Amino acid sequence: MFYGLPIVRKDNILVFTINSIGVAIEFIYLTIYCIYANDQSKRRRVGIIILIEALFTAVLVAIAMLFIKFKNRALFVGVICDVFNIIMYASPLAIWKKVITTKSVEYMPFWLSVAGLANGICWTIYALIQLDIFILVSNGLGAVFGVIQLGLYGYYYFLEKSKTKEVGKPPEVQLSNQSAV
Length: 181
Fold this sequence. Notes:
It is a single chain. By secondary structure, the protein is an all-alpha fold. Helices cover 77% and strands 0% of the residues. The chain has 6 helices and no strands. Helix 3 packs parallel to helix 6 (133-167), helix 4 (93-102) packs parallel to helix 6 and helix 5 (110-130) runs antiparallel to helix 6 (133-167). It is extended and about 90 Å long. The mean pLDDT is 86.
């Protein structure tokens, strides 16, 4: 969200607007989660994570505003945003190993994979239109990760289906040779 502000990069209000809406939706989701969480420790964990994230963001904003001149601020903030955006897109990589070893896609949500791909493609197109290298790098990688993830999903989904077809109908068990009277 900070990257979209005019104090970091001029003419980037669309990025700020979209990211602000995303933060608002995330805040609403976390509020609902905390209201309905059964365990007090889960609520506390969410609160601690939000606090750490807020402190980290405040430190980055302070460093960017106090120590970095305007002409270099977009570079500083852009690289940090790229790193965290790539981490976000690469996080499903953790499940790839499980999918490959189990040869099952039950641990990989399909619609989340589709949403990640669509998000990466949309932001990549926007970055190409605006010629913004920082948005392009991380979201281009996100689109590539999304294609790989959906390819992996498709491969193991259809592999799983073909195995169930090969197995077919289980053989019927014959209890005895006598016929019923």
